[in-house]
């Protein structure tokens, strides 16, 4: 089922981890072993979850690395669907070559 306007992973982290547990961005960044500015860019939706960051988030906050990447993918795809014009495109008729 397609999600309606999914949260950016950074917003999810803010709402589920940072705010409820009164964590500081510096504290989380230190645990992730990234700079505070790197983590703040993620929290503010200015950068995306990379495979490396997904591994770090999984270790520090929980959830699987795949779930962090899937969340980023859902966010990206939803926004791409709003921007990309697919009008006039036709599917190629492909057949197996023997």
Measured between the Cα atoms of the first and last residue, the distance is: 37 Å
Our count of domains comes out at: 1
- Poorly predicted runs are none
**Structural class by SSE content:** mainly alpha
Quaternary structure annotation? single chain
Using the coordinates above, name the CATH class. Mainly Alpha
Strand content: under 5%
Sum up the overall morphology in one term.
elongated
How many individual β-strands? 0
CATH superfamily: lambda repressor-like DNA-binding domains
- The name CATH uses for the topology is 434 Repressor (Amino-terminal Domain)
Number of helices: 5
Which architecture does the CATH hierarchy give at level 2? Orthogonal Bundle
From N to C, what is the helix and strand string?
A: HHHHH
Q: Give the mean pLDDT.
A: 94
Radius of gyration: 18 Å
* Share of helix, binned: 55-70%
Largest sheet: none
Structural descriptors:
mainly alpha; 98 residues; 434 Repressor (Amino-terminal Domain)
Explain this structure:
The protein has 98 residues and is mainly α. The protein has one domain (9-82): lambda repressor-like DNA-binding domains (434 Repressor (Amino-terminal Domain), Orthogonal Bundle), CATH 1.10.260.40. Helices cover 57% and strands 0% of the residues. It has helices spanning 9-18, 25-32, 36-43, 51-61, 65-83. It is elongated, with a radius of gyration of 18 Å. It starts with 8 loop residues before the first helix and ends in a 15-residue tail after the last helix. The model has no long low-confidence stretch (mean pLDDT 94).
């Amino acid at each position: 089922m397609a999600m309606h306007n999914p949260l950016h992973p950074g917003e999810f982290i803010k709402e589920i981890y940072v705010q409820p547990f009164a964590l500081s961005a510096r504290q989380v960044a230190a645990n992730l072993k990234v700079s505070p500015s790197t983590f703040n860019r993620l929290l503010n939706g200015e950068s995306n979850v990379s495979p490396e960051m997904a591994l770090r988030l999984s270790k520090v906050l929980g959830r699987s690395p795949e779930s962090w990447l899937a969340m980023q993918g859902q966010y990206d795809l939803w926004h791409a669907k709003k921007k990309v014009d697919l009008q006039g495109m036709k599917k190629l008729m492909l057949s197996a070559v023997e």
